């Protein structure tokens, strides 16, 4: 039985402003980003990944990382996260006083080479440098195990490699771990197995699951993850974004669709779904195109229609 | 734990030619329908809902029901199903020698009125007439409990009403039951509860679950249904179709995406996914527009890409 095992309370994190806007064809103006983050801050999300302190040449869409961090109004209780690729990025993140940085390595060597232009060993070496900078500061560090559920070049990753990466991260002092299905290869049985193995290996480590809907299984995977005891989920407003370097990869799971499903199942997310839907419905105007989210179009399952005249 | 409860083998039924083509803006030529059914017949699907013996005025797209039935090449082991609204339809279905007819009533009274222009009691009366015609013939009868997981006008339906409808159907001699989420209101916890209740009440009755992906939960619902012991699932090639009378309702779950998920989870469907994908990829050309299926675009999760040059 699935639903007997579902947790009573989970947390939802939004990555749209970073993961979504990063791969938009057009630059989203800084003030639009700030306005969106400020609106998201009031919906009950646990974390918002607001930007990435990467080279503006690598990702021009996020060249305004410092301005975004400076411009937003921080809501107590919300963790503002920035992705950081290296020590230089970490210093910029520290200067911007982000609450948490996110370090990402793909355990698929070929994907890490394609995406980060580094071997996994080189990524870990970078991370060690970052952790030295962070030591003693209040800034928290989340380590993302990308391609945890499969690499589009190297295929499914063995479980020990997921646990190996997590162990490396935790050994450096990272505070929490995200297992990311970077190119949408995860399936429910695998999600359940990996999640349970992770929780058995690291019962006290905060775990986030990050799914893509590339093959339509995104919410099924989230359900399987929750049933296996995961308590934190990444998603992207409107379902925008995805990994721009992964062939065929489209779409993070959609935040409001995810909240809608968990709400329906009686799992508290702390998110005000109506408020979130209001924000989501303004997203197409911001990015200039339709977005994959479905509940923003169909309405919530509890929204009834007037009976047709007889 | 979900996946420990998943069945080893399930069956998949396709409804695209009936439920999908019925609501297409353009009439799909009879020979295209026949060709598509014949291709689907060779993929390992258990049932194919090929047409509806309704009034050509009500659904002009399916005015060629008899020609379609006559034109197809029946593959042994595949059950060819036609939807039938009344005795006249039943006689036409008998003349066409369909293997199984499908009778549909929405348990949401308002939806049944809007969709069928009948009260539930009037629908059941029609069904009694149909069952009299069928008695003694080899033709099987499936009863669909539509809006089983919620009516867009009347809201969530109480469990007893689902069981009441099933009991009415079975009392008339119907052979199998489909619980249909006609407008995409089901959620996983509800699916599990309803499926378990049904199986407890009618342990020997073949049960099919029919989901829509209106709010993105389609495959999550199928997973929950399978974990609760459902062994038969409807879906639509490419995810086409939906209920044309239901406001905001779009999209059956996609057959090849469903098979892909179950395959990945190690559940045998009997369907040749590669063959099915080949057929699905020809669907946009047949209907003249893109379709919602995702695996047809992304490829299977096991399809790897060449490593980028270093």
Automatic annotation (TrEMBL), chains A, B:
This protein's UniProt keywords: Lyase, Metal-binding
Molecular-function GO term, any one: metal ion binding
Gene3D superfamilies: Aldolase class I (3.20.20.70)
One of the protein's GO biological processes: ketone body biosynthetic process
Classification lineage: Bacteria, Pseudomonadati, Pseudomonadota, Betaproteobacteria, Burkholderiales
Pfam families: HMGL-like
NCBIfam families associated with the record: PRK05692.1
Family: Belongs to the HMG-CoA lyase family.
Protein's name according to its UniProt entry: Hydroxymethylglutaryl-CoA lyase
Alphabetized InterPro entries for the sequence: Aldolase_TIM (IPR013785), HMGL (IPR043594), PYR_CT (IPR000891)
UniProt domain Pyruvate carboxyltransferase: residue ranges: 10-277
PANTHER family: HYDROXYMETHYLGLUTARYL-COA LYASE (PTHR42738:SF7)
